[in-house]
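Lab notebook page, bench 4
Experiment: in silico fold of construct C2
Operator: M.H.
Input chain length: 367 residues
Purpose: comparison with the prior construct
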Amino acid sequence: MTSVKGFAIVLAIAFLPQGTLPCAAAVDDSAFQQHTAMITVQRDGMAPNYGVGIILCEQVQSIFILTAWHVLYGPPSCGNEMMSALPPPYRSIDISFFHSVQRFHDPDDTGKAWEKWPPPQSFCPPDLLILVIPAPTLPFPAAPVTFSRANGSESDQSVRSVGFPGGAKPWDVKSGRVFRTSSDLMYLYHDTELAEGFSGGPLFNDEGDVVAVNVKDHVIGSTLGVEDSRFYAGAITTEQVMEAYAERLGSCLKIRGPRASVDEIYLRGLEAEGKEKWQEVERLMKEALMLEPQEGREIQVTSGEQVTYLPHYHRGLSLFNLERWAEALEEWSSSENYQVVKKHKKCYSNLKQLREKCKNRLGKVSK
């Protein structure tokens, strides 16, 4: 296996034009199945556990697959200790692809056979996990997916899920409809009747884009404000996937969305900065970064006038003014890594001065 540790994937999300053909042909199940992998987890003395992997891309002689944390390690729990102590190792993991005769086998959880990327540390990290496995020796037939933001998913929109219920019906495709998206854009709820074996799998819209990742199969309606006892499935939205992995995956994570929307969000952030509305600046720059983490391109403002796209720098500025010193330092470090901010003497001089203030204030807090 060729390791990808230390490899710097280009930090740029591939944006694809919106819109679909008005007279598109009906899509058969294989169009959804080819984007997924079947995950079989075996532990000593237990029946196999099945889940789904979403094929993101093939890079650096490796395949990048997104799934749910709990497929391998059990339900995540809130607390900073979540990632520090993993559950008992499984005996083996096997991964199969829809159009491939090859089967991939990870003998144990030593971390040597495959790489595993948990989401960034936080008090309540999302139920997500990236697997990095060696690319097959035969031509790889599976198609990487494109994601679409869930906040564009309307109620009653039709959706499809792919899963492996009990391992007895591989690549089963079930249909349903969107019920609602949570106000914090964490979960998209839908009425598809899912079961064990669909966890970690994609929730597709009619265009074949992934709008969320299935992680819950029995959410009672009364908890969602529905006056009946029906159950809904819960899926982690594209927005959360982007927040967890966009910068690390770069171009491996393909998001469908117009470039103009990124420009608009960024310019609104600059406008809020001019009015010293720091919470709004922080929110807008974070949203821009979720869509496009790489700094450096020029944005046309008016005829003959351009501004440089520096969301890490400006989010750091907002965090400084919100007295979130450590986070500000992290954003400025990211900005420096792109080198572009160093070409803007006024911005870079300001960054260096404020960075020293951050360090001084953090030092006083720690004493």
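Observations: The radius of gyration is 22 Å. The chain has two domains: 9-17+27-257, 258-366.
Next step: discuss at group meeting.
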